Amino acid sequence: MDYPKRVMKASELAAFTGQKKEYFSRLFYFPGQRFAWKNGKARNSPVMIDTEEYEKWRQRQVKLGRR
Predict the structure, then answer these.
(1) Residue 19: partners with Cβ closer than 8 Å, 6 or more residues away
(2) Which pairing describes strands 36-38 and 7-9: parallel, antiparallel, or unpaired?
(3) Is residue 26 assigned to a domain?
(4) Full-model pTM
């Protein structure tokens, strides 16, 4: 899938894909992931997602039958 930007907020990615924002926000807490982070130390900082790395991870999940 081609994304409009290399790094997107969880809310932007949700609007682009049609998934719920909570799905992308929870990715930050997924063990071992290297594509989602928070911009700052405040608990309400937006979750930022590297879309290229996310897509690689998503494709691996599809192959494993987890999605």
Answers:
(1) 13
(2) unpaired
(3) yes
(4) 0.86
Residues 9-20: what's their mean pLDDT? 95
Q: What is the pLDDT of residue 43?
A: 83
1 is a domain residue: no
* Containing structural domain, residue 49: 7-64
2 assigned to some structural domain: no
Structural domain count of the chain:
1
* Neighbouring residues of 8: CB distance < 8 A, sequence distance ≥ 6: 16, 48, 49, 51
The answer to whether position 18 is within a domain reads yes
For 15, the token pair is 């609007």
| CB hemisphere CA count around 27 (13 angstroms) | 29
Dist CA 58 CA 67 (whole Å): 8
Cα separation, 62 vs 67, whole angstroms: 5
